[in-house]
Design goal:
By secondary structure, the chain is an alpha/beta fold. It is built from nine helices and eight strands. It is 45% helix and 12% strand. It has an eight-stranded mixed beta sheet with strand order 3-2-1-4-5-6-7-8, sandwiched between helices. Helix 9 links the parallel strand 6 and strand 7. NADPH dihydro-nicotinamide-adenine-dinucleotide phosphate binds next to helix 2 and helix 5. InterPro entries: CBR1-like (IPR045313), NAD(P)-bd_dom_sf (IPR036291), Sc_DH/Rdtase_CS (IPR020904), SDR_fam (IPR002347). One of its GO terms (molecular function) is oxidoreductase activity, acting on the CH-OH group of donors, NAD or NADP as acceptor.
Length: 316
């Protein structure tokens, strides 16, 4: 009974917050805060559908030039066409975040056609579990796409980030399931948890090693006793890695000189009605995309290495 009360209250709070956000969305970003123009270039991965498509639509709606990328060329063209017909400034290019030649070809195209980009939204992702399922059959693909795909794009795009006083921005689409300190869904090994959560001990090597330990246990068939997150274990691990990598990169990028700053943050879109959730989410792709768009356009330059949900900072 008490649990139901708590759940209802949480639902009410979320609904109130979503109402607040839709109100915020009706208020245009004020002129003095608009650091972008129609020349500002935003790249969105996995943008042919779902949250990525919505992020593209909303960024284009704010007047930016959006490069909608899709691993399937014809599907990407179709999606871009919908936005172009709506009068938006949207270009389209093939991009598979796991395919080095595709990434290279994309970078060459960007360099030739635009010279630089200002915003990268790492949205491409996969998940193969629904409801209470917890299969790890596709764990390698989940971790490779969600984490290594994100990392591939960050590394490939940094040299193409436009030098500017406003700075460029990277937004990683992540998930609350990847919280190192989640209440139920967490890593049990407290020493590892501490290392991953502490910027002094966090390293790319530690993140990669943690993932390969998990994948090795999947291969050996003993991952269930490994103390990994209990829900959507492979997906949670992939997003935990994205979160940790976001913090780590923010630290590394903070050393860049004025005029070449890059800000990097991640966010959880909520539980969104898209193909990924079998359309079972509780919010629309439009609402799910909002925090990502808001983060990409944030005028406040001090924000980097943070994790957001519903436009509020949350803990890693
Ligand atoms: P969708 O399944 O609708 O979209 C996923 C997109 O990623 C598709 O465009 C897909 O392309 C693309 N993609 C997958 N693999 C690759 C690849 N190797 N290279 C390029 N693109 C690829 O899911 P959502 O819109 O729901 O998910 C978008 C992001 O939001 C993901 O990162 C997801 O983890 C995250 N997220 C979603 C939540 C939700 O409730 N829906 C909750 C929390 C986070 P294709 O069409 O070719 O398959």
């Amino acid at each position: 009974m008490e649990t139901k009360g708590k759940k209802e209250k949480a639902k009410e709070r979320q609904e109130k917050r979503l109402q607040e956000i839709s109100l915020l969305r009706t208020i245009p970003y004020s002129d003095h805060q608009r650091w972008w123009s129609s020349e500002t270039v935003a790249v969105v991965t996995g943008a042919n559908r779902g949250i990525g498509f919505e992020i593209s639509r909303q960024l284009a709606g704010h007047g930016l030039t959006v490069i909608l990328t899709s691993r399937d060329t014809s599907v990407g063209l179709e999606a871009a066409n919908v936005l172009q017909e709506g009068g938006f400034n949207v270009d389209v290019h093939q991009l598979d975040v796991l395919d080095p030649p595709s990434i290279k070809e994309f970078c060459d195209w960007i360099q030739e056609k635009y010279g630089f980009i200002d915003i990268l939204v790492n949205n491409a992702g996969v998940n193969y579990n629904l409801g209470n399922d917890n299969s790890v059959e596709f764990s390698k693909q989940v971790i490779t796409t969600n984490y290594y795909g994100t990392k591939n794009m960050v590394k490939a795009m940094i040299p193409l980030m436009r030098p500017s006083t406003a700075g460029s921005r990277i937004v990683n689409v992540s998930s609350r399931l990847g919280k190192v300190n989640g209440r139920r869904n967490r890593i049990e090994d407290s020493a590892l948890k501490e290392q991953l959560g502490d910027l002094d001990t966090l390293s790319e090597e530690l993140i990669d090693r943690t993932l390969s330990t998990f994948l090795q246990q999947v291969e050996d068939g003993n991952w269930k006793s490994g103390g990994w997150p209990e829900r959507f274990t492979d997906y949670s691990m992939s997003k935990l890695a994205v979160n940790a990598y976001t913090r780590l990169m923010a630290k590394e990028l903070s050393n860049r000189p004025e005029g070449r700053k890059i800000y990097i943050n991640c966010f959880c879109p909520g539980w969104v009605k898209t193909a990924m959730t079998g359309w079972a989410g509780n919010i629309s792709a439009e609402n799910g995309a909002d925090t990502g768009v808001w983060l990409a356009l944030l005028p406040d330059l001090a924000i980097s290495g943070k994790f957001f949900a519903e436009r509020r900072e949350i803990s890693f």
